[in-house]
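#data-curation
PF: Archiving a pair of folding outputs for the training set. Convention for this channel: one message per protein, sequence first, structure tokens after, nothing in between. First:
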Amino acid sequence: MLERRTIVLADGSVRSYFALPPDYQDFPTPIRPLDIPDEFGFSPGTLSACLGLLLAAAAS
């Protein structure tokens, strides 16, 4: 994600530095781990909600 850039100083020495690319704001928001579905197509938040509904139904 970072670009390596080089600058030549007035005394002739060369320095390298790392910088964000010019289009860094165009990167999409990374997927949070809770939003990634498992092998069955459910995310952990979905499974927790389903389990809560099942437990509530069993208790009544």
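PF: Second:
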Amino acid sequence: MTTHQALHLTSHHADGIVTVMVAGALEYDTSEEFSRHTAAALAAHPDARVLSLDCAALTHVDSMGLAALLSLRRRLSASGARLRMEQRPDRLDRLLDLTGTRDYLLAVQVRTRAEREGARSAYSDDASSDG
């Protein structure tokens, strides 16, 4: 059985960006720790508009680690914040490609309230003109 390096997380905040340095394995045994740490870092800085993951020292991600990343992305989107994943190792990019999650996780979601309302309005106008 393969044993992976433990997960080590450190974070700091500057200019509306919370940066979390992720070192080690993001997997079944560590995904809850990752989720707790990122939630606490964001709660400590409610003004943060971006959570940046520094993945340079990330050694392994399994399906539970990927689920934790997807969950983080959903939470950030719901609060109007963005996720950045910096210095991704090649193996992480391959995982994101193989699972079809790259575009979702790495998408820049910069839409103003007016843009969101305009999209809803355009959709309802299209739907009402069909009848």
